[in-house]
Amino acid sequence: MGKGLSRSQVFFMTLTCILVVGNLYYNQPLLGILAREFGVTEAKVALVPAFTLIGYALGILFLVPMGDMIERRKLIQGGMTAAGLLAVALPFSPSLGVFCAISCVMGFFNVSQSILIPFAANLAKPEERGKVVGIVLSGILIGSLMARTLAGFIAQYFGWKTVFIFAGAVSLILSVVSQFVLPRSQPTFKGTYKELMASTARLFRELPTIREAAVMGAILFGTFSAFWTTLTFLLEAAPFNFEPKTIGLFGALGMIGALAAPLAGRYADKKGAAATIRMGLYSAMAAFALLAISSKVVIGIVLGVLLLDLGIQVAHISNQSRIFNFAPEAHSRLNTIYIFFYFVGGSLGSYIGSALWSWGQWPAVSLGGLGFCLIATLIFVRGQKNRATAEKMA
Asked: Is the pLDDT of residue 153 over 90?
């Protein structure tokens, strides 16, 4: 049982999530610049966010479970240090291939925020878990969107290379500060690394709600990544012809939706996750329907961004929070399962989004997102029916 976190600790965890998660997203508003820098097509430069998220998914799979096995603060510090050094190396890449490779390895080590989530869940008081997880998770959501805005402004005034040098420096500073702010953790798993990974697979097999949440998370973040990857291509082209700093402002719009995460956590504590998940799914589907008819209308895109981010973030926070109702001693492993699927979906979404753009441009991307959100809704409805049937039979 968690004994609670101080406000300063929750604030630092949230701030760390905001700043560190940006390493995964700084490249997205810069794709047009990177395509010109390396002399490649839009389809090829879309591999940059895809490789970054693939690396992150692998880090989730192989590093985050260790949070149940070793002291979490040390694991967080090691990840931030490695990711920070690799981010600084990115501007010196001689080719797109090297840039993708470094991005992938950087993503692998950039997992500190995903260790902080189960850390917060374990330390929080049971009656406050949804609220605390929602607040810390809001840091990840805000950071993923703020990164796009910040990268656009830095690139506009100081050059794209400065974006990654800044990102690396921030990670290194946070690694040092965390030594004095974060509490020490007590490992809950006593076996070997091989046994740890085997137990993670066993949890996935034995808990159907975890499987459902993981697949839904993958679909939702896939649609989210497809949208943000291709939005850059839409806004750079006619009739908009926006500069990077203007494109980055659309990330700031999305932060309004991310601010709903703590409210969703509190609501889930009181009413249960199902109500907020349904609310989020319906909002995301409405957003994609609006975006499908707004390829040349700025106000339609703005409203679509607000509605989509609100829907995806509300569904995500409630979907992820419900996994922490199981196996308190295995929260890092449960989070590994969820976030691994989540970012595999994100990396595939970036690639599928660019493929849909090449095939049918913005209408194809929007209708594809609508279709995937509908699939996630059907999965959730089926899960609800199966759980209700199981309860009647018990």
From this structure: no
